[in-house]
Design a protein that fits this description.
This protein has nine helices and 14 strands. The protein has 306 residues and is α/β, with parallel strands linked by helices. The relative contact order is 0.14. It binds 6-O-phosphono-beta-D-tagatofuranose (TA6).
Length: 306
């Protein structure tokens, strides 16, 4: 079983502009849509689409709970969230300009969680997670959830003995590396914060892979530099027309962990996850991708042993 933990859930409000975003102009919207936000929820969406059993854990504000739950149900995501009373789940504004590749992401901070809220989440994790499970902690932390809370969460998961995957950034990523986890996916800027002074990117990955089973450095449209054991690869995605890149990294993480759970090899998991992500960016929302499309795109992913 895979559990995803989204500490700071989000509803994505997608704003499709009639034209290119321009300052000092009334930029008119062609349409507005809502989709699932949050990196852990996106991971669950990919796992569910790939028919890998998973459950989404985390927090959920009660004042707009129905809206988030409706999207989770539409996306067929099994979930068991801790209610945070009287608070609204935040929104991320995803701006998609007419005829322009990619998106602009503007994200709210989120509501504050209390010690009681945190204790309820820990209770659920203690009750559910088994040593043979995988847990993905992904996305930002809400106000009130401190680094020490993350350290305690990872310590608990290490005590249980499950596989711990983290898609985190900044101080949270550093704390996860220090606490000991099995998977990280920093981007090309975040990895620099984990590097020894003057160390090359590849040497940093090799160093980190001594203590972390899987280290994936995402390089946006250029692909990723990946390490596991004594295997290191530069992965290059197929050339495709990007409509909306929001959620591409999350789709990669969910598809990669799903592939590992299905006992695929490291390289096969990497190329399939890259293909799922390439399919995702060809869709205009934050989550959708085509498994069939990904299976075709996987043949075009370039793997270079480094
Ligand atoms: O990675 C994309 C995304 O999940 C968006 O859909 C939006 O919800 C945002 O990231 C949330 O980011 P955060 O790091 O605050 O969890």
């Amino acid at each position: 079983m895979i559990y995803t933990i989204t500490l700071n859930p989000t509803i994505d409000r997608l704003l499709y502009l009639e034209e290119v975003l321009t300052k000092e102009k009334n930029n008119r919207l062609e349409s507005v849509a809502y989709d699932l936000g949050g990196k852990g929820h996106h991971g669950s969406y990919a796992m569910s689409k790939l028919e890998v059993e998973n459950q989404a854990l985390g927090f959920c504000g009660t004042t707009n709970k129905r809206q988030l739950e409706k999207i989770l149900e539409q996306k067929n995501i099994n979930h068991d969230l801790v209610d945070v009373y009287g608070k609204p789940t935040r929104e991320s504004y995803v701006i998609v300009e007419k005829g322009v590749s990619g998106s602009i992401l503007i994200t709210e901070r989120g509501y504050e969680v209390s010690s009681y809220d945190k204790s309820l989440l820990v209770d659920k994790i203690e009750e559910k997670v088994k040593p043979e499970d995988t847990v993905l902690i992904a996305g930002s932390m809400p106000p009130g959830f401190e680094i020490k809370d993350l350290e305690q969460l990872i310590t608990l998961l290490n005590k249980i003995g499950c596989f711990i995957a983290c898609d985190l950034s900044g101080e949270a990523l550093k704390a996860a590396v220090k606490a000991g986890v099995n998977f990280i996916k920093p981007n090309r800027f975040e990895i620099l914060e984990l590097a020894n002074h003057g160390q090359s990117l590849l040497d940093t990955v090799k160093e980190l892979t001594k203590t972390i089973d899987y280290v994936i450095v995402s390089q946006g449209g250029s692909g990723s530099l990946c390490g596991h054991g004594n295997e290191f690869y530069q992965i290059s995605p197929p050339t495709i027309v990007v409509k909306n890149d929001t959620g591409a990294g999350d789709c990669f993480v969910g598809s990669f962990l799903a592939s590992l759970t299905q006992k695929k090899s490291f390289v096969d998991s990497l190329t399939f996850a890259t293909a799922c992500s390439a399919s995702k960016v060809q869709h205009i929302d934050s989550t959708s991708f085509s498994v069939k499309d990904a299976q075709n795109l996987q043949k075009k992913v370039i793997v270079e042993k480094v």
